Amino acid sequence: MDEHEREHDQQSLSALDVDFIRVLEDLIDALLANGTLRLTDLPPEAIRKLSQRKRARQRLRDALDLLDDDHTTL
């Protein structure tokens, strides 16, 4: 395997990791929502990281929201 192929494989794996992390977050949210898992069941570091990601996603979502919620006409 040459350097170019190795770099491509690393980039592909990184992209898959990002997608998989989102799947895990959604799974954790579903388990919390149906009561199978309690937030306090998770280690403090995991809770901190989940909270950081949720806040970052919310900030991004807010930054992309170009219309006010109380708009009545377009």
Q: What's the structural blueprint in terms of helices and strands?
A:
Layout (H helix, E strand, L loop, with lengths): L2 H31 L10 H21 L10
Structural commentary:
With 74 residues, the chain is an all-alpha fold. Helix content is 70%, strand content 0%. It contains 2 helices and no strands. The protein has helices at residues 3-33, 44-64. The termini are far apart.
Strand content: under 5%
What helical percentage do the residues reach?
Answer: over 70%
Given helix and strand content, the structural type is mainly alpha
Q: Helix and strand string, N-terminal first?
A: HH
Total helices: the number is 2
Distance between the termini: 55 Å
Q: Could you give the count of β-strands?
A: 0
The mean pLDDT is: 88
What overall geometry do the principal axes of the alpha carbons give? flat
- What low-confidence regions span 5 or more consecutive residues with pLDDT below 50? none
Largest sheet properties: none
Based on CA atoms alone, the radius of gyration comes out at 18 Å
Quickly list its features.
single chain; 74 residues; mainly alpha; 2 helices; flat
Concise synopsis of the structure shown:
With 74 residues, this protein is mainly α. Helices cover 70% and strands 0% of the residues.
